[in-house]
Amino acid sequence: MSTETASAAEQVAVPPPAGWEEARSRVYAVGLAAALPAVGRPLADTDGHTLAEPLTTRTDLPAFPTSSVDGWAVRGNGPWRVVGRVLAGGSPAPLTDDGTTVEIATGAMVPEGVTAILRVEESTRTADGRVAGTPRPSPEWREPGEEARAGEELLPAGTPVDPAVIGLAASCGHDTLRVRRSPRAALLVFGDELLTSGPPAAGRVRDALGPAVPAWLRRYGCQVRPADVVGPVADTLPAHVAALRAALATADLVCTTGGTMHGPVDHLHPTLEALGADYVVNTVAVRPGFPMLLARLVDPDGRVRFVAGLPGNPQSAIVALVSLVAPLLAGLQGRPMPVLPHATLAEAVPGRGDYTHLALVRLDRVAGTAHPVRHVGSAMLRGLAGADGFAVIRPGSTGEPGARVPVVPLPLLPGERSCP
């Protein structure tokens, strides 16, 4: 081998690819170690953030006995003489005399001394104005602490905040929550061959990732502004270095598309070297999507930022998103490592030898089955558009019909919950 050939080989030498499961664990760990700082925010400003500490209730829930119905709060046996009315928001006097009642509204505090509540629709009035009827045997009010006791932990730290969590926090008496903010993300699109409008032609292809990746990132809880999407970036090293340096000035995570190999115009690796980045993962033993990477940069002040190199082929780029970006973002937000659901393969899915195979599937959530879809080449998006996620076929195995396999779900909109 000549000196020139040896030098070129040394320049492109990379360590063996990380196993897919190992890569997920590794990027989650570095994300969690760099979890975004906790801040206090008013309830109305917490949607899409993540609880930085457990949510506990400040009082018993409910805090006092609360009527479940509209009707009559009675004491003793009837018919009952009406001595007043209790509306929600009031603090009533005790009911001290047998044979008396107060009209009560749903949600109102039950007076001390009440022995039963008679539903209004099951009551009648006597000629002398008293209330008659037979209360149901079970209490028609909620007892203090029925839902939770003061100080009880309702949700753990790491829980995503959605409208249901906000409502629960308000019912517990909270005005603010300690949360981790949503990560800020940016996208750099590499490739002079890309068109940003119109149909592909004359050797140039349409950029499918520039419009799509920011939407995926938002579904993982990121903030991505239109100004944070840049490209196509010119296929020169100075242009790559300048674009990545500018994006890192404000972003916690910068995703790039293309340039993750060592071709004549692949400048991502030299750019990372020029900026002093270190690799967390450099290639993953997964198909499609093998040449994905995650790198970390640490500022002198300790601020940590990440660069996720997504392959240029569109489906491979999405495999990199679900494989590396999803667990990284979970860690940055202080959320638990995503747990993969399982499904039963309805059809055979081939293995990929020593590599993990992520195979696009459509889920039948009623039957609990996963059905492979068509049009799943690494450069194709047609299959992805009709899929719910990726079935995981582990190295050295094949997916036989009836096998239970993990499934990496495609992300939902913030606040959405997947169907069982």
UniProtKB/TrEMBL annotation:
<feature type="region of interest" description="Disordered">
    <location>
        <begin position="124"/>
        <end position="151"/>
    </location>
</feature>
<dbReference type="InterPro" id="IPR036688">
    <property type="entry name" value="MoeA_C_domain_IV_sf"/>
</dbReference>
<dbReference type="GO" id="GO:0046872">
    <property type="term" value="F:metal ion binding"/>
</dbReference>
<feature type="domain" description="MoaB/Mog">
    <location>
        <begin position="186"/>
        <end position="331"/>
    </location>
</feature>
<feature type="compositionally biased region" description="Basic and acidic residues">
    <location>
        <begin position="139"/>
        <end position="151"/>
    </location>
</feature>
<comment type="similarity">
    <text>Belongs to the MoeA family.</text>
</comment>
<dbReference type="InterPro" id="IPR001453">
    <property type="entry name" value="MoaB/Mog_dom"/>
</dbReference>
<dbReference type="GO" id="GO:0006777">
    <property type="term" value="P:Mo-molybdopterin cofactor biosynthetic process"/>
</dbReference>
<dbReference type="Pfam" id="PF03453">
    <property type="entry name" value="MoeA_N"/>
</dbReference>
<keyword id="KW-0808">Transferase</keyword>
<dbReference type="Pfam" id="PF03454">
    <property type="entry name" value="MoeA_C"/>
</dbReference>
<dbReference type="Pfam" id="PF00994">
    <property type="entry name" value="MoCF_biosynth"/>
</dbReference>
<protein>
    <recommendedName>
        <fullName>Molybdopterin molybdenumtransferase</fullName>
        <ecNumber>2.10.1.1</ecNumber>
    </recommendedName>
</protein>
<dbReference type="InterPro" id="IPR005110">
    <property type="entry name" value="MoeA_linker/N"/>
</dbReference>
<dbReference type="InterPro" id="IPR036425">
    <property type="entry name" value="MoaB/Mog-like_dom_sf"/>
</dbReference>
<keyword id="KW-0501">Molybdenum cofactor biosynthesis</keyword>
<keyword id="KW-0500">Molybdenum</keyword>
<comment type="function">
    <text>Catalyzes the insertion of molybdate into adenylated molybdopterin with the concomitant release of AMP.</text>
</comment>
<dbReference type="InterPro" id="IPR005111">
    <property type="entry name" value="MoeA_C_domain_IV"/>
</dbReference>
<dbReference type="InterPro" id="IPR038987">
    <property type="entry name" value="MoeA-like"/>
</dbReference>
<comment type="pathway">
    <text>Cofactor biosynthesis; molybdopterin biosynthesis.</text>
</comment>
<dbReference type="InterPro" id="IPR036135">
    <property type="entry name" value="MoeA_linker/N_sf"/>
</dbReference>
<dbReference type="GO" id="GO:0061599">
    <property type="term" value="F:molybdopterin molybdotransferase activity"/>
</dbReference>
<keyword id="KW-0479">Metal-binding</keyword>
<dbReference type="GO" id="GO:0005829">
    <property type="term" value="C:cytosol"/>
</dbReference>
<keyword id="KW-0460">Magnesium</keyword>
